[in-house]
What we know:
Blueprint: H1 3-10, H2 14-25, H3 30-36, H4 38-41, H5 46-75, H6 81-89, H7 93-100, H8 110-116, H9 120-128, H10 137-142, H11 154-171, H12 173-186, E1 188-193, E2 209-213, H13 219-230, E3 234-239, H14 242-253, H15 259-308, E4 318-322, E5 329-334, E6 340-346, H16 352-369, E7 373-377, H17 382-390, E8 399-403, H18 408-412, H19 415-420, H20 426-439, H21 441-445, H22 464-482, E9 484-485, H23 491-494, H24 502-515, H25 532-538, E10 542-543, H26 561-571, H27 575-580, H28 582-586, H29 600-611, E11 641-650, E12 653-657, E13 664-667, E14 688-697, E15 702-706
Parallel strand pairs: 4-7, 7-8, 9-10, 13-15
Antiparallel strand pairs: 1-2, 1-3, 4-5, 5-6, 11-12, 11-14, 12-13, 14-15
Amino acid sequence: MNSGIVAAELGITDGQVRSVRSLLEDGATVPFIARYRKEATGSLDEVAIMSIRDRIAQLEELAKRREAILGSLAERALLTDELREKINSAGTRTALEDIYLPFRPKKRTRATIARERGLEPLAALLLAQGTDPRVDPEEEARSYVDPEKGVSTVEEALSGARDIIAETVSEDLEAREKIRRLFSAKSFVSSKVARGAEEAGAKYRDYFDWTEPCAALPSHRLLAMMRGEREKFLRLSFGPPEEEAVAILIDHFVVSDTPASIQVAAAVRDSYDRLLSLSMASELRSELKRRADGEAIAVFASNLRELLLAPALGQKRVLAVDPGFRTGCKIAILGAQGELLHHDTIFPHSGERQAEEAGKKIVSLCAKHGIEAVAIGNGTAGRETESFIRSLALPGAPMVVMVNESGASIYSASEAAREEFPDMDITVRGAVSIGRRLMDPLAELVKIDPKSIGVGQYQHDVDQPELKRSLDEVVMICVNSVGVNLNTASRQLLSYVSGLGPALSANIVDHRAANGPFTDRGQLMGVPRLGRKAFEQAAGFLRIEGGDNPLDSSGVHPESYPIVGRMALDAGCSVKDLMADAAIRDSIRLERYAGGGAGLPTLRDIMAELARPGRDPRERFEAFSFSGEVEKLEDVRKGMILPGIVTNVTAFGAFVDIGVHQDGLVHISRLADRFVRDPADVVRVSQKVTVTVLDVDIERRRISLSMRREPG
């Protein structure tokens, strides 16, 4: 693999690429490399490291395909020095496949049948288009008439020759590249309603007769049309103006004005209609789909990252409520570590008497457990339950917070929830999940398949393996950037820690249960099957609060403990004093400790960790409240100015929860007073915003919102 190619493409040095590749091959993870191997990589971040990794993989796949093609050609005695040179110089998969196309083993085609009938010399004669106008194609074809070979007439001979020419045209490298460029620059996608699908496919009515340049086609529109096609409501076609494409080919292949040229022109048109246009349309469709998938996955990944890194309330005693009308509200009391202390059911929406009983019970539980916050799910009966809770004089005045419960039902019925609460009803598990989401969104959301969280765009229509890979990487990066409490983390959370995974995380939890809390990072080496490599990759991201070594609560890697020890020794203090006293830290000259793999980037990171051990990169938690004016869709009026929380960012705008069980849409054109190309430049998931109501469609349950300064 030529690391220079990757370096040039990504604008970095050859040495950085080689270092990243070497570390990856040695089993290092992306978070570990980005955090603890900055000297080797030149302080590349996770995005750059993943780009290097992915590009190396692409080039390796290209190399494998190249070798397979060379092997196939050599096996069939078709490999010449010139062909080998062309194949070795091909820089892309497309170029490689174009070179191989004429030699690829084929099923019997019209051209191969014509060759079997001995018509290749006639095709070559016609394609040469000699300048002598006296050369008559029909006269030349007459000598190829041979009923025993399946050629009964002159026209059959000419038709077979044209078939050979058509295939030659479709496999010509230069012609393919010219048509490919035309498809890329001037293609349109056309969508038509399938016969008889007008009623059943009504939700795709916008695309019943739709044409748009492919170059301007937004990813969400393409994915919507492709879904309609897959459901057999729409028919799609891709391509440029046909006559322009044919004109390019005729200009390339028709080199004179002779009777033979007429035959060649006919073959060229047939080649485009029957072969080349279909091949290029399929290629364009695949490229557009790949691009749309990439954009949709990037949107999903960005949204997921913001959701996972949403501010955490932290270790507080929480009363969690999973609201409901008829079946009541499930409540769960959680301790500061998220442990379930008590659960019950109240009926605040079933008449005055039961509401009064529910109020007394809530007040009593808050007093008994010293509740510091109340978490209420934002599903059915959420706003009504919030109003009820806020009407109570709760002891200690705990904050009351609405929590996005999207995906909580998925967790409640999951194996993880059954394992954690085997004897509990799924509604109790749901209430626990709501409370824990307030305390630490990241720790709770990792228990759910990211696709179930509801922050994606057409997530079921994109490349599923690529979506899973991308989302898993987002979770991994988020988990490792925050760090994990080794003694309280769930098996699911631990599985995303660098170097661990499901098996080792389960072993850690089992070891913890059998031996009690970890008091030293070194005790990880006692976990079954957790070897030195896994320890190296994981230890820096695992935190131990109140352990034997104060550095275990920080992001300082154990491999750097000796450096910190030397700093403390030189300063005449303990490591704990070094962590507590900024004046001592300021007196340290980092240059004295550089060497042995630890350069200034690592030393600066160490000092930052000593100043704020285990610092949480997430923003501080701030309580949010919806407007008391609205609780249901019918309360919303045009012109209202309301607080809201962004729940999803898409290519066409952002969805905002204003507290009425139905998110409103802020179209991209209404996100800001300036032009916005990408909604992610303006808003992010979990962001608190103020919106103006533009329109309310109660029948279709749609709310149109704006974040611009609207007139009036």
